[in-house]
Amino acid sequence: MTYDRYQSPLSERYASREMQYIFSQDKKFRTWRKLWIALAEAEHELGLPVTREQIEELKAHQDDINYEVARQREKEVRHDVMSHVYAYGVQCPKAKGIIHLGATSCYVGDNTDVILMTEALRLVRKKLVNVMGELAAFADRYKAQPTLAFTHFQPAQPTTVGKRAALWLQDLTLDLEDVDHVLGTMKLLGSKGTTGTQASFLELFDGDHEKVKEVDKKIAEKMGFDGCYAVSGQTYSRKVDSRVLNVLAGIAQSAHKFSNDIRLLQHLKEVEEPFEKSQIGSSAMAYKRNPMRSERMASLADYVMADAMNPMLVASTQWFERTLDDSANKRLSIPEGFLAVDGILDLYLNVVDGLVVYPKVIEKRLMSELPFMATENIMMDAVKAGGDRQELHERIRTLSMEAGKNVKVNGLDNNLLELIAADPAFNMSLEELKKTMEPARYVGRAPEQVEEFLAEVIRPILEENRELLGVKAEINV
Fold first, then answer.
1. How many angstroms separate the CA atoms of 161 and 142, rounded?
2. Are 343 and 293 contacting, i.e. CB atoms less than 8 angstroms apart?
3. What is the DSSP string of 399-449?
């Protein structure tokens, strides 16, 4: 641990080692070398004077990067790509003259960015699917547990604990669709030259347009992509970065909504996030059990949603075929957006895996409000017994106001049932009224909706991605 300089909390506290490695220097420079090998192979296969011996030499030193040589060279030339070309050439004297042949810095820079974002999106997708799996199990377990629902955070018709979880799950389903769409459209830049015209390759191949086109196809295939963007300037369109960050921001939105709901439920003492035996909730109030995981999710989500603005600004202000004011911004906004979402999904998985539900508290709160919600059923039963609907509606309204006053002004229990039982207009005993107080009668199709949603939407997704399931999240602090 270094204590005398700034360390990013995203790497120190929040993101997994797996996501950190994707955006590490080692991963970047190894990818550069893979791209140089792919370019040399494509050029060899298309007839340029690049030998198999040179390619084998490049492959032999693909992973043993001589960082110190590159570092010293960069101090002299102030150019990271050419420093690594030089360092690779020191290790590969036979291939030295063909490394980076016909390419620009963006050949390794931009293609590597796309490769790393694609790999990072796949890790995000894996964790997202695992969160969905845990939420699906939770929704199924509590699909029939009645709970008080809220609109405007005011008591409304009951729902079930599982149905509320299905709402969180629905948001993640939309996020998964967005991730899959973007993953399915990711393409490499290829090797387009300084202004995107491939002029250097047209020169290398003596004006053979078909061979120039084939270079991009071969590079994409060797790097595991379906193709390259058909046109570009020196760089791929920076709207690609914006699309990717928007997907991450969408996941952040869903996670923030979930974390807010959990924090409200924890305030109500109905559902709590995990709280470890030795965990301290407050430095002053020893009794407190603060929802720190959910709060951290919300905090990181705020960062990701704000971070999505960065590639928007970059994409909208690129000049013609390129300008370099994207570089420093991309180095920050893209990796840190992924690191933050990685931390969010680890927290999400950890919280769902350990959610604690308190059915007795849930039932007590629901029963304190249920008499108000049962009044329509009570009124209908009284009408069927011969009562006047308009008269009964007015009586219900008046008695409800009186019961509400008892609760809010006098601090008493809800006595609406007793007031109705004492009113001869209803001709119903207290025992008959209490029989109407079965919570399951008021949740509508919530249990069935959960069952259908899980069966028709979620389980096919989980079955299709079953090889990704089984991830457990460790929270550092």
1. 6
2. no
3. HHHHHHHHHHTT-----HHHHHHT-TTT---HHHHHHT--GGGGSTTHHHH
Instruction: Name the catalytic one among 152, 267, 278, 283.
Output: 152
Please give, one letter per residue, the 3-state secondary structure of 45-114: HCCCCCCHHHHHHHHHCCCCCCHHHHHHHHHHHCCHHHHHHHHHHHHCCCCHHHCCCCCCHHHHHHHHHH
- Higher local confidence (pLDDT), 425 or 315: 315
For 199-220, what is the mean pLDDT? 97
Q: Is-catalytic flag, 282?
A: yes
Structure-token match 């008493």, residue found: 412
Find all residues with CB under 8 Å of 410, minimum gap 6, and list them: none
- What is the residue whose two structure tokens read 């046109």? 231
Question: What gap in Å lies between CA 359 and CA 309, rounded to an integer?
Answer: 42
Taking the C-alpha atoms of residue 35 and residue 110, their distance in angstroms, rounded to an integer, is: 11
Query: Is the pLDDT confidence value at 279 over 70?
Result: no
In the annotation, is 152 catalytic? yes
Task: Express as a percent the part of the chain with pLDDT over 70.
Answer: 97
- Helix axis angle, 25-45 relative to 209-222, nearest 10°? 140
Active-site position among 79, 181, 209, 282: 282
Residue 94: pLDDT band (50, 70, 90) is very high
Closest CA to 185 of 117, 108, 254, 232: 117
